[in-house]
Amino acid sequence: MSQNPANFLRSQDVNDEHLFQLCKQSVALNDYPYAHDCKNNVLIYNASSLADHMQTERINVLSELHRAISDNGPGVIVIKGAYSDPALLSRFNKLFESILIQEREQKTGGDHFATAGANGRIWNALQKVALQAPADFIEYYKNPALGWVADAWLGPYWQMTSQVNVVHPGANAQHPHRDYHLGFQSNAICESYPLSIHKLSSALTLQGAVAHTDMPLASGPTKLLPFSHQYDLGYLAWRDPDVVKLFEQEYVQLALQQGDLLFFNPALIHAAGSNQTADLHRTANLLQISSSFSKPMESINREAMCQTLYGTLCHKWQTGQLDEEALKAVVACTADGYSFPTNLDLDPPYNEAAPQTQQQHLLLAIQQNTPAIEFFAILESLRSKRLA
Ligand SMILES: [Fe+2]
Fold first, then answer.
1. Cα(292) to centroid of ligand 1, in Å?
2. Same domain, yes or no, for 262 and 317?
3. Could you tell me the distance, in angstroms and rounded to a whole number, from the CA of residue 177 to the centre of ligand 1?
4. Which of 290, 323, 344 is the last residue in one of the domains?
5. Phi and psi (nearest 5°) for 76?
6. Is residue 368 domain-resident?
7. DSSP category for residue 286
8. For 14-31, what is each residue's pLDDT tens digit?
9. What's the domain range around 135?
10. How far is the CA of 267 from the centre of ligand 1 (A)?
């Protein structure tokens, strides 16, 4: 049986001229009616006006955000002013510092993707913050802005993960790269996947970042190559010396302010910049958000998170400190939102075709004020029903 060899591409098929042509495009701001501005081909949105539009024109907003991240757009956006309480972010920064010290003392953690000591890296910061500072976790993740672009790019039931990166003064820039999934594989492995999976890889995750400090250009905010995600062979291209040269000539950088959000297509070629300040420890909470259909990069103990957060969530809900939108936002970042994989012998469909999810149980338990002991038993039975 004959095969179409064009479905399996090799590193030597990379054509940097093709990539260059794609990156010469420019964004027409008029094509993005909800955007507030466009700088260096990065679309800029304003969090408060997006929030208003999400109330009345949700599908149109989601559609525009999707287009911006997709092959029809530049692949990168900024949402300005998503966090307006500097005290919350500075409490988070203190917690990050103490986790980093703790992990250094215990000789765990560390950044596998940078020179030792140049960066402070916290893997699975999502779970660590939930377990160590539940009230602040709720305050932070109740922000619906975190979910807008995820809803737009991945649809519902996405899986939030977070990895903190503190880039110290003097730290060098990263090598340009693409991100998870295929961005974490060698060229040889990428060559063994058909082109359709290369395209799919970028549809399965969304890269985001919350600026926890101001990020002036001198501090090295992420270097971005708008439109580079549109290049089909990009997962085989980013190590190519000509592509690295092109990246260094053409990348753009945007100064961010504390509380801004950056989101980009994981196939966009990018790199953390070098921090040339004397004293600014550039701090970002990196959000890697996975489609419900995908294997996320990190394993998360969501049951432990649900248990730890449950009492505070119930209290905040009952005392009116969380409205329904905020409650749903924080539940989406906490519990598993998808029904599968499960054991269909033990866990039959609940409504229509899908068994009940951890998110549905958590939301219902909070709204019904279920005693913690009963809710924990529900979580445990959900886990055992899913085992084969
Ligand atoms: Fe990256």
1. 21
2. no
3. 6
4. 290
5. -150, 140
6. yes
7. E
8. 999 999 999 999 999 999
9. 6-290
10. 9
Q: Which residue has the tokens 């510092």?
A: 97
122 CA distance to ligand 1 centroid (A)?
15
Cα of 310 vs centre of ligand 1, distance in Å, is: 33
Task: Compute, in angstroms, the gap from residue 271 CA to the centroid of ligand 1.
Answer: 6
Return the SS3 of 2. coil
Whether 141 and 325 have beta carbons less than 8 Å apart is answered as no
Number of domains in the chain: 2
Ligand 1 centroid to 303 CA: how many Å? 28
Q: CA angle at residue 145 from 304 to 150, to 5 degrees?
A: 70
Residue 351, helix vs strand vs coil: strand
pLDDT(377) > 60? yes
Find the 288 Cα to ligand 1 centroid distance in Å. Answer: 10
320 and 175, same structural domain?
no
CA of 176 to the centre of ligand 1 (A): 8
pLDDT in tens, 79-128: 999 999 999 999 999 999 999 999 988 877 777 666 666 789 999 999 99
- How distant, in Å, are the alpha carbons of 83, 331, 344, 349 from that of 354? 35, 19, 10, 5
Sign (positive/negative) of CA torsion 172, 92, 301, 82? negative
| Ligand 1 centroid – CA 257 distance (Å) | 20
Give percent of the chain above pLDDT 90. Answer: 93
Angle at 293 between CA 290 and CA 299, to 5 degrees: 55
pLDDT of residue 114: 63
Q: In the prediction, which pLDDT does 348 show?
A: 87
114: CA distance to ligand 1 center in Å?
A: 11
Q: Note whether 175 and 65 are same-domain residues.
A: yes
- CA 148, CA 127: separation in Å to the nearest integer? 21
Distance 89 CA to ligand 1 centre (A): 22
Q: Are residues 238 and 311 in the same domain?
A: no
- Distances in Å between the Cα of 125 and the Cα atoms of 75, 130, 140, 353 are 25, 8, 13, 34
The pair of structure tokens assigned to 261 is 């959000």
Report which of 210, 169, 255, 222 is spatially closest to residue 86, judged by C-alpha positions.
Answer: 210
Distance 167 CA to ligand 1 centre (A): 14
Cα of 213 from ligand 1 centre, angstroms:
19
Are the C-beta atoms of residues 280 and 171 closer than 8 Å to each other? no
